Structures are given as structure tokens and as C-alpha cells.
Amino acid sequence: EALLGRGTSAAAVAIGGTVATVATSSPGVAAVAAVPPGKGEARGDCAVSPSFGGNPGNGYVLRCAPCLRVSSPSSKITHSGDVRVGGAVVVEDQPDVSAVLSAYNQQGDPTLYEEYYSGLKHFIECSLDCHRAELSQLFYPLFVHMYLELVYNQHESEAKSFFERFHGDQECYYQDDLRVLSSLTKKEHMKGNETMLDFRTSKFVLRISRDSYQLLKRHLQEKQNNQIWNIVQEHLYIDIFDGMPRSKQQIDAMVGSLAGEAKREANKAKVFFGLLKEPEFDVPLDDEDEEGENEEGKPKKKKPKKDNVGSKSKKQDPNAPPQNRIPLPELKDSDKLDKVMNMKEAARRVRLGPECLPSICFYTFLNAYQGLTAVDITDDSSMIVGGFADSTVRVWSVTPKKLRSVKTAADLSLIDKESDDVLERIMDEKTASELKILYGHSGPVYGTSFSPDRNYLLSCSEDGTVRLWSLQTFTCLVGYKGHNYPVWDTQFSPYGYYFVSGGHDRVARLWATDHYQPLRIFAGHLADVTCTRFHPNSNYIATGSADRTIRLWDVLNGNCVRIFTGHKGPIHSLAFSPNGRFLATGATDGRVLLWDIGHGLMVGELKGHTDTIYALRFSRDGEILASGSMDNTVRLWDAVKAFEDLETDDFTTATGHINLPENSQDLLLGTYMTKSTPVVHLHFTRRNLLLAAGAYSSQ
């Protein structure tokens, strides 16, 4: 799959003529805000500079720095200040390559490295069960740093022997990282290798209870094992919590990302996850009577339904952001009309649940030799778009109504503009067809997104551009250039006007359709941004990355407000629940993880898929979560049951302890296999019919 071989690089952002490189590790997150949305022209000119060479396909890069720390009274700073408790503020800087590597000069006796490591290993394996699981987290970061130290100081044979002896002890989910590490056998290799710099410059975060930490500290001081203690001090960030040590199962659920776990501090900011109040307008009842086919019961049933919707929206959701927190476009008449249609459809919506599963309609792309790389379906399910590896974007009508372009200017001048059916008359019947092909990109198209009003379409490509297409004329209106590398995903805001893109430069960008520069640049991921999603209230954006983390960004100020770790491979799908409280994420590890956005906690893990999950979607009322995978299956999960009775008390939130149910099979409602079609997109219609799409693969 073209989608899987994603490498990385660094981003330099030029603002007002000065160039500042934006790249950070997970401890401190940088964001560059060009100008508030809707306040005139964005002034930032974004360019992406190539990074320090290295292996383009390795999928990782992180660039952050030897930290400059500002302590607060509650923080305790020891030595270089990386074992801290409390609210230390971390400010990160761009490292100088030689300075980064020179830290490996402080070395011990190379022949004793194996002894040091095996001594610590023996101590941890002989410690009490309750501490063993926590302290075992040290194995991987210590192994990497000790190996790199040996290589840097040109003890090549000792490094090789050290690697061969201990690499088999590491957790299986670090195998890809270890493969890259094994290719670094000489000092010269390190200078150009991004993965090495990533590891050297980011602080690996470990979350350990105070008792386990004291045990480790005492052991290292008694043994006078300065070499390991120096590495702990220099390269690790130990997030200490008071309370019971975590179990192996709890730790395994949360670790696996490129830089360890997220610090608890990273998920403390307030997030307005509630929905915005719906604008009020009258629903014309005569239409309902007609549609009700003169059955008196139907309009009467629907009328209270409409009032309920109205009364719900009159009460402001306590968790919702202020209505004017970010400028949103005003509703046009056509949008109001569409909302009325939506309400009518909602009145006929099927209530789903374990006893009432949705029907699934699968759109298979046959003979797609161009290589299908992206799919999207309009909200009203009238059109489907495919992005292809041959750089084309193809739009199909999936209703009997064909796709038509607007007439030429000469023909339009002959039309009576006052007539009721003017919108029909301006369409040129001669252009009617089921399929329109849009040409313009010069590389595979990796992401597509319809605007909520169905007038526009976004596509993003390997050529580094995002294009905006008109669905009235089927032509390209704008090419947005900001990423200098492949753009993996793009998505319209649920309110239109804004959209987000994420790419190989490890940065996500927020755009407005009428600005040719991005309004916000979200920097902080340590590898490619592989997927992007707007929160239903449009105030937040979620991004998934090849660094195996998910971040939630605030559109207003560009800050990172949540970092979720737990996946063991690059993230490829994201879905917010319709009420805005929860986020579901899918990755190459075949797991779907569920997150409580308000508390910043993982609350569920759905196991069953055997390959990458490329599609996730909640049903319209949030009762069911559908997941689609490269294993050629669609699975349906009971979302109501998954989110009920959540333990989100103060203790859970303070320590980050989570108790996931042992077996997610009781949440699985159904598995539906295709013959040989990987599932790349899912969509619930307004009446809760599930549409799925993918390209048939003959192998």
C-alpha cells in the first residue's frame, strides 16, 4: 500500500521574513499561529526545509533539544532536571547536531556495558512482582542509549556484541525501531541518521510509582552504577505518581509510542468537548404533510421530534465552547434548506443497537488499476469520490441524478433569473454523466473530503498540494501550497470554510478556503501526520501520526491540549462520537482504542482486526461504532456499552490508571467479510444505513 511507506522530515516556518524551525518533542509542544481565523490575510509564509538527511523511509523523525527548564515551586529538579514531580514548564529548542551527539562523550568502560545492563536486568527481574512491570519499562530506552553511546565512541565490536546479546529482550512492538538501530554501526552513520537524533534529543517518558522509583534509585546508588544513572538523568523523563504501582496489563495498554508515554501534565488542560447550539429556524410543515403521504400520524409524530431538537439546542451544553469562540461562517439559505432535509431524514432514522444492527451497502471499486488511495462520501450520500495513485480524482453520482456542470456564461445570460427553478435551469444537460474525472495533481491522491454543502471538494496529494475543486463546474479553484512533502490527509470542518491538512513534514496546517496561507501550524508530532479529523464543534482538531500518538489541538490558539499514547503502530483512522465526548482511533496494530476527551484517558480497547484499520465511523446517534480494515472485514461494536459506567473518578484521572475489560469480544456485535476487498472508508447515511467502500484486490 502506498499509504504505508511514510517517512519524515523537519519543518521550517518563515514568518515575517525570519525563518524559525518548528519541531518539538512530546514534552514541550510548539505551535505557530499566523493570524486568528477570519481576521484578514494570514501573514505566515510556510516553507519546509529538508532535514538532516537520513533514511527517508524509516517513518520517524523527532527534533527537539537539550531542554531549557523553568521550574515552578512545586517542581523538584535534580542534576539535569529530568526526574521531576509537579508542574515544571519545559521549553524546547532546536538542537545543534554536533552538540546533540557530543553528550555521548561522557562514557564509562566499554567492556563493562554488558555487565551494567545485565546487572540492572537481574535486579529488575528479581524485584517484587508489583515493581517488576514498572521497572521493566527502563529496558528499552537504556538499551538504545547504551548502544548509541558505544557506537558514538567507536567501540564497534562491543556495540555489536551488546546489541546481539540484549535486543531479543525488548518488547515486540519496538522491533521496527530496533531494525533501524541495528543499521547504525559506525559513528559516521549517526551524524546523518534521523532516528538516532530522534532518540537522542527527545526525552523518553516513563510513568513510574514513587515506590518503584525509590527502589531503582537506591539500587543504582548502592552499586555506584553511575553509567546507568547518568543515562536515566540525561535522557529519560520519569513522571512519578503517588499510589499503587501499575500492573503489566495497565502499562502495556499505554506504552509503545516513539517517545514513551504522554506526561500526565499534557492532558490536564480544559477541553470544551460539548456541541454548539444549533441555530433556530422554522421547519415548513406543509412539506412534512406532503411527505407524510396524508397520514395524519406522521407529521404529528415528527412535530414533537422537531420541538425536542429545538428545546435541546436552546439549553447551552455546559461543556460546549462559547458560540463565538472561533468565527464560523453564517448559514446560507441553501444550508438551512439542507438542515430541514436533515431533520426530516432524522425523523425516519433507524434506532440502532445490539438488537437492531444496520444494513451494510458495500461499494467495490472494480478494475481500479489506477490504485485507489482515498475515498469520501457526501453527508447526504449522493456522491462518492475516489483519489487514485495515477493522480486523478474521480467523482461518481450514486443516485439516479447525474452530475452536471453549470452552463457557459453565454448560455447563462439567456436565463430568467427570477424563475423558481433557476437552479435547475443553470445546469447544462449536455454535460450530464455518472462520473467526472478531475485532473490537476501530479502525484497519488492520498486524501479527499467533500464540503458539508456539497459545493466543494478537497484533495491532497504526494505533490505537496491541497486542491479545492468546484462541484458546480468540476474545475480546480485553488491549489494550497504549504507542505513541501506529500500530504497524507485533508478534511473539511463540519461547518465548512476551514479545513485541515497533515503530511510527511510532521506538521498539520489549518486553512480557510479564502486564504492562500495557513491560519495555524500545529507542530509537535515526531513523525508524519497520517490522518486528521475535526471535532464536531469545529474548535478542535485531532491528528494521528506515524510516531504512534494522537494529539488534539485547539484551533483558537494552536496549542496541543491532549496527547494519547497506546497504539503500537502508525495511526490511520480517527472518529469522534456524535456527542463530542469520545474519540476512537485505529492503527496498523489492528486495535481500536477509545478515549475520553474531557478526562484525557483511554477508556476502551477493541481487539479483533488482524490488519491495519483504515476506517472508523460512529452511527448518527452514536450507538454503534463501525471499523473497517485491510483484513477485508467490517466490524460493528456496541458503543453505548463501551462508554457506560466509566471509572473517571479523581484517583483514576490523577494517576492515569485504567482498568480495561479483559475481553472486548462482548462488545463485538458482528463481523462482515468481503471476498477480497480491503475496507478504506465507512459512512452512515442520515437514516443509519452503513456504506462501506474499497478496491477489489485480486491477490
From TrEMBL:
The keyword Cytoplasm does not apply. WD repeats lie at residues 365-406, 438-473, 480-511, 522-563, 564-597, 606-638. GO terms for biological process: transcription initiation at RNA polymerase II promoter. Keywords: Nucleus, Repeat, Transcription, Transcription regulation, WD repeat. Residues 306-317 have a biased composition (Basic and acidic residues). Residues 108-236 form the TFIID subunit TAF5 NTD2 domain. Coiled coil: none annotated. One of its GO terms (cellular component) is transcription factor TFIID complex. Its main location: nucleus. Pfam families: TFIID_NTD2 (PF04494), WD40 (PF00400). InterPro entries: TFIID_NTD2, TFIID_NTD2_sf, WD40/YVTN_repeat-like_dom_sf, WD40_PAC1, WD40_repeat_CS, WD40_repeat_dom_sf, WD40_rpt. Residues 283-337 are annotated as: Disordered. It is found in: Nucleus. GO terms for molecular function: RNA polymerase II general transcription initiation factor activity. Gene3D superfamilies: TFIID subunit TAF5, NTD2 domain, YVTN repeat-like/Quinoprotein amine dehydrogenase. CDD domains: TAF5_NTD2, WD40. Residues 283-294 have a biased composition (Acidic residues). Homodimer. Component of the TFIID basal transcription factor complex, composed of TATA-box-binding protein TBP, and a number of TBP-associated factors (TAFs), including TAF1, TAF2, TAF3, TAF4, TAF5, TAF6, TAF7, TAF8, TAF9, TAF10, TAF11, TAF12 and TAF13. The TFIID complex structure can be divided into 3 modules TFIID-A, TFIID-B, and TFIID-C. TAF5 forms the TFIID-A module together with TAF3 and TBP, and in TFIID-B with TAF8. Component of the TFTC-HAT complex, at least composed of TAF5L, TAF6L, TADA3L, SUPT3H/SPT3, TAF2, TAF4, TAF5, GCN5L2/GCN5, TAF10 and TRRAP. Belongs to the WD repeat TAF5 family. PANTHER family: TRANSCRIPTION INITIATION FACTOR TFIID, TRANSCRIPTION INITIATION FACTOR TFIID SUBUNIT 5. The TFIID basal transcription factor complex plays a major role in the initiation of RNA polymerase II (Pol II)-dependent transcription. TFIID recognizes and binds promoters with or without a TATA box via its subunit TBP, a TATA-box-binding protein, and promotes assembly of the pre-initiation complex (PIC). The TFIID complex consists of TBP and TBP-associated factors (TAFs), including TAF1, TAF2, TAF3, TAF4, TAF5, TAF6, TAF7, TAF8, TAF9, TAF10, TAF11, TAF12 and TAF13. The TFIID complex structure can be divided into 3 modules TFIID-A, TFIID-B, and TFIID-C. This is Transcription initiation factor TFIID subunit 5. It comes from Sitta europaea. The lineage of its organism: Eukaryota, Metazoa, Chordata, Craniata, Vertebrata. The gene is Taf5.
